[in-house]
Amino acid sequence: MNRALITGVGITSAIGQGKERFARALFGGEHAFAYMEREGRRKGSLTFVGAEIRELANATRIGERVRRRTSFCGLVALATVEEAWNDAGLDAVAPERIGLIVGGSNLQQREVVNATEAYASHPVHVSPYYSISLWDTDLCGLCTEAFPVRGMTYSLGGASASGQLAVMQAARAVESGELDACIALGALTDLSYLEFQALRNIGAMGTDRYADDPSLACRPFDRMRDGFIYGESCGAVVVEGSESAGMRRARSYGSIRGYATATAGNRNPNPDEQCEIAVIRRALKASGLSPAEVDYVSPHGSGSVIGDTTELNAVVACELSHAFINSTKSLTGHGLASAGAVEVIATLLQMEAGRLHPSRNLTSPEMPSLNWVGEGAINQRVRNALCLSYGFGGINTALCVQHEGL
């Protein structure tokens, strides 16, 4: 069988760009939470805590002319894909055998709000490039213009599960033999003050409880959590068939053992425990792993008051209480569409290093009896990991990855 291997990764986040810098930040427990200042994220006295990318090293494969007419979301995507492309050595793969799946929809809402406010009184002068960038598929065009991808390309919307769904679809494409390699991009979700306020109003995003100290606001699985805290991020994962990778002797971070999706049948953001249990069990069955063989769980862990408790109930019900567990979002914030891809990358980097990163602000954990990684990184070898990702619309996903060096 043509197995799905991960042969390259790229990461851009508020705590660091590039896998080396990102790994150092993870194991060092770094964060970048503060009041957000990017244009379109503040309105009068209305402010929000989050983590923003302060410095971005641009992709080298695009010229200044393209750079000037490309949105922030697009620039981050290009830089992230470039790292993954180089990491996997995809120049050695035939372009028609390489695909790209962009995970995420409604990605550039801040651009929409800024354009609306800038051109409301004279819409005739709106930039013609706005007609291109408003589509999520613009990232497909940008990336395939810069990199020789000539196989299957499309965008995929799954709310906060988009990044992991993209990885799963990439795995299907190479397992079937349709492609030799496929880039799964968890795209940066660039929101404005309008979306943040709406998410706060529905009870999903954190309040101003920690207004005096933004560094305390993001606290998944802690009893004092009150919603997710946003964090800019983008992750690219190169999924390659074992036949292609073997022929060119590509390095592998690990293999995708199995994955599953399940639908809760619910439009609202509240979670469904039985659906989460079902998706975990299906993923384990697809991977051929027993619960006892799972060493580490990378949870969705958004910081939602109800969501975190529901997720932990599902972990316990699936007999995974023994597995180590931490919270990547406690360091990066919630990247929304990018989160699933970013957390797969964090999982792979932890498996490669034989270390598990700490969880910030986990001073009073929900379910303290679980095998938490607390305020400091620990040395721990992981062979099998389970990554969980959930999204609005009742979307639930689970993905099992295996480190093949153990």
Supply database-style keywords:
33% helix; 406 residues; 13 helices; 3-stranded mixed beta sheet; 12-stranded mixed beta sheet; alpha/beta
Could you explain the architecture of this structure?
The chain is α/β, with parallel strands linked by helices. The chain is built from 13 helices and 17 strands. It has helices at 19-28, 64-68, 72-88, 109-119, 130-133, 138-146, 162-175, 193-201, 242-247, 273-287, 305-317, 329-332, 339-353; strands spanning 4-13, 16-17, 33-35, 49-51, 98-103, 153-156, 181-186, 230-231, 233-241, 254-263, 296-298, 324-325, 355-356, 371-372, 378-379, 384-391, 395-402. The strands form three sheets. Strands 1, 2, 5, 6, 7, 9, 10, 11, 12, 14, 16 and 17 form a twelve-stranded mixed sheet that branches. Strands 3-4-8 form a three-stranded mixed sheet, with no helix packed on it. It has a two-stranded antiparallel sheet with strand order 13-15. Helix 11 links the parallel strand 11 and strand 12. The radius of gyration is 20 Å and the shape is globular. The protein starts with a strand and ends with a strand.
Task: Please provide a brief summary of the model.
The chain has 406 residues and is α/β, with parallel strands linked by helices. The chain contains 13 helices and 17 strands.
